Amino acid sequence: MKMSNATHHSPPEAWAGPDSEDERATVDSEQTLSMLGDDYAREILMAISTEALPAQEIADRLDLSRATVYRRLNRLESAGVVRATMSYHPDGHHRKQFQADFDRLVLSIETDGIGVDKST
């Protein structure tokens, strides 16, 4: 199956989604599809789909090494489906937290290739 180099396709009309390009964010389709084939990446996405978590907490919850978690988070962030924010605590400490950057991912298969769109 040939995958296009395009990073964005519009979702099918039957799916209620954002109405303008400004409301849809572009993702790297190839990288996202590759990551969705990875068990650890899927587990991480599910863990951060409802709340932002630091990498250490993700590692603890999923019983994974921090290195494994960071590798997947970096690739997911690069693909455009995870965002990182800084969390500041009153005691002066701060840490990076990660959260899924979509409400829904839509896979489209069209004549010019396969695309992945996200809606937030």
TrEMBL record:
<dbReference type="GO" id="GO:0003700">
    <property type="term" value="F:DNA-binding transcription factor activity"/>
</dbReference>
<feature type="domain" description="HTH arsR-type">
    <location>
        <begin position="31"/>
        <end position="104"/>
    </location>
</feature>
<dbReference type="InterPro" id="IPR036390">
    <property type="entry name" value="WH_DNA-bd_sf"/>
</dbReference>
<dbReference type="InterPro" id="IPR011991">
    <property type="entry name" value="ArsR-like_HTH"/>
</dbReference>
<dbReference type="Pfam" id="PF12840">
    <property type="entry name" value="HTH_20"/>
</dbReference>
<protein>
    <submittedName>
        <fullName>ArsR family transcriptional regulator</fullName>
    </submittedName>
</protein>
<dbReference type="InterPro" id="IPR001845">
    <property type="entry name" value="HTH_ArsR_DNA-bd_dom"/>
</dbReference>
<feature type="region of interest" description="Disordered">
    <location>
        <begin position="1"/>
        <end position="27"/>
    </location>
</feature>
<dbReference type="InterPro" id="IPR036388">
    <property type="entry name" value="WH-like_DNA-bd_sf"/>
</dbReference>
